Automatic annotation (TrEMBL):
Belongs to the ATP synthase subunit s family. Required for the assembly of the mitochondrial NADH:ubiquinone oxidoreductase complex (complex I). Involved in the assembly of the distal region of complex I. Interacts with incompletely assembled mitochondrial NADH:ubiquinone oxidoreductase complex (complex I). SUPFAM superfamilies: RNI-like. This is Distal membrane-arm assembly complex protein 2. InterPro entries: LRR_dom_sf (IPR032675).
Amino acid sequence: SLSLVTPVWNRGTSGIRGLSKAVDPEGSQRKGRTLLQFLTDRFYDVEAVREYLLRKQVLKVQKKNRSVTYIKERYGPYIAGAYFILKLGGSVKFRDREWMRADERGLSSLEFRKLQEVPLEAVDASGCAINYQGLDNLLALKELQSLSLRRCPHLDDWCLGRLYQLADSLQELSLAGCPRISERGLACLHHLQNLRRLDISDLPAVSNPGLTQILVEEMLPHCEVLGADWAQGLKVGPEEQSQDAAGSPIPA
């Protein structure tokens, strides 16, 4: 009897099957169940891999934000805070010193250890993977005057609720570009009455940027709040007022 055949691919043709089997109703149902099982298995595998990679990423961030207690106990809070930020890829500035960034030789050096008694007055952690746990390494810096947390992806409202511990010294703070900060977190900054400059521009989680900026300015009256682009359209200048008046119809 005549039967049609077609190749079956598995990294090349490994054999042939009769097409007459494929057109058999029972064989078709069996083939459909096999295909469904195949798709189910592969979909499960994709989800499992995705969850695994997500857990791995979370654990990696947590590992980076471990408390450097052993360094703090041996060298003090200034060295511990500097070590933590430099390890994340940021930069630090000790009083009366130049900005310091981690180099290829690592973080340990004789000059670094000589700074145990020199206050750490500025930290630039822009783009670093700092989170709620990692802030433990900075809250002991009671002489810290400037803190930049620009574009930190893991910084959220809960983190801002901890910054009150730096209220006595902190004068400059940048939160620009942090995707997880909203109005709730910004409300926690009312403790920082010594702030003189605050950058809250480009916060996508803030639903009403212009109104939020006004409220923050009222909350911190002695602080320059950056984010003026948000307020465009809220304040009308003299030229716009005159144009509106000229273009408006005269009531009868």
